[in-house]
Amino acid sequence: MRFNRIAVALALGLVSTMSVAADADQAIRNTLKAIDPTMAVEAIAESPMPGVYQVELAGGRQLYTSADGQFLLQGYLFQVKNGKPVNLTEAAESRGVVKLLDAIPASEMVVFAPKQPKTHITVFTDTDCGYCQKLHSEVPELNRLGVEVRYLAFPRQGLESEAAKELSNVWCAKNKQEAMNLAKTRQSVPDTQCDSPVAKQFALGQMIGVSGTPAIVLANGKIIPGYQPAPQLAKIALESK
Asked: Fewest CB within 10 angstroms: 164, 167, 187, 210, which?
């Protein structure tokens, strides 16, 4: 009988905990909806810090809130492990970025791959961008060092720009790699029509915080803004796989 009472108590405690979690989830969602009805909430869970909840937004962005949703915090949450600070927010955001990029079919990217890739980078690029052109000239060296380069489109001047049209021509070409080579060496790319993913990729870049090009995303989801020389970039990419 004593065992049964303990089992019942444990069960009631579990139900109570689940109820508290459900109440917190709803309270937080209500607050965020009142602030911005369009805010896309991916998940809500207790954070590693007791009493604080972690909200994952679209694109991997993170917010922190009290259980009643009345206190909100946007910023980095660190945990000290063995005397060293670990950025938990950055790690969570990177995992969110990886999840989004992994969902993109290879057919919607322009990929330059070595025979035996050791890791990969995803580059949000604009053909009308000097440093993007410089980075592209070093793609053979990146490939030689074992780094696969996956391109996504990011027309910096918007979807009505000439660069957006050229990016669409690249993505619609029968040979996307050849078309990218032409565009990055300031040669014209034949006009082509198709169901281009350029707008979708531009929106994705904005959602994860891309504001300029090239924006390089490592295999672990960390974003490096701006050009890096091939040897340095390959070293960073290989260390992050």
From this structure: 187
